[in-house]
Amino acid sequence: MRTLTEQKKNEILTSASSVFLEQGYERASMDGVAKQAGCSKATLYNYFPSKESLFEAVVRSFSTHYLTRAADELRSSDNAALGLTDKLQRFGEGMLGVMMSDWKALQLYRIVVGEAGHSDIGELFYESGVRESMNALTAVMAHHIENGELSGSNAAQRAKQFSALVKAEADELFLLRKLPVYTQSEVITMVESAVDLFLKGAGNHRI
């Protein structure tokens, strides 16, 4: 077996992302990816045993790594002492970090939304980082519900509500042909608005 290298793996992921973006998940094939990457199909299968595992790796590389990093920040000991507002702000900025990227992540998400109804692509996307980030956010919500800062008792619901508020201004991007470019300052402002609205609605104002 030929030696597996990180450089070759990255080349394959870059080529695969181009194929998925051009052809969609269902029409893309391992043959097409191998041709785009300039390698044999055997070499491709040495790195990724199936199209599903390849797509998940592409999504992790170009899209959900923002969510994974946001989750890691929530769990880090450095952030444990932060207040709820700061925790939510950092998580939200991590989520929307994709908006300052090269837009490949959002294009991949368009594929997921478009094909989720007739394939397992939605589940693959969710398992590639979304579940991990939502679990981390749910744990934060549970902690602050327990200490009385948040109202209600359903931490997972609070996590989903906050996530929806953070993404609210980004939803329209998926309808645009040409994606705009956002600055870090604009992203920070979007998240601040979401945090403020969430805490006004879900914050326990009796404390």
Automatic annotation (TrEMBL):
<dbReference type="InterPro" id="IPR009057">
    <property type="entry name" value="Homeodomain-like_sf"/>
</dbReference>
<dbReference type="Pfam" id="PF00440">
    <property type="entry name" value="TetR_N"/>
</dbReference>
<dbReference type="InterPro" id="IPR039536">
    <property type="entry name" value="TetR_C_Proteobacteria"/>
</dbReference>
<protein>
    <submittedName>
        <fullName>TetR family transcriptional regulator</fullName>
    </submittedName>
</protein>
<feature type="domain" description="HTH tetR-type">
    <location>
        <begin position="6"/>
        <end position="66"/>
    </location>
</feature>
<feature type="DNA-binding region" description="H-T-H motif">
    <location>
        <begin position="29"/>
        <end position="48"/>
    </location>
</feature>
<keyword id="KW-0238">DNA-binding</keyword>
<dbReference type="GO" id="GO:0000976">
    <property type="term" value="F:transcription cis-regulatory region binding"/>
</dbReference>
<dbReference type="InterPro" id="IPR001647">
    <property type="entry name" value="HTH_TetR"/>
</dbReference>
<keyword id="KW-0805">Transcription regulation</keyword>
<dbReference type="Pfam" id="PF14246">
    <property type="entry name" value="TetR_C_7"/>
</dbReference>
<dbReference type="InterPro" id="IPR050109">
    <property type="entry name" value="HTH-type_TetR-like_transc_reg"/>
</dbReference>
<keyword id="KW-0804">Transcription</keyword>
<dbReference type="GO" id="GO:0003700">
    <property type="term" value="F:DNA-binding transcription factor activity"/>
</dbReference>
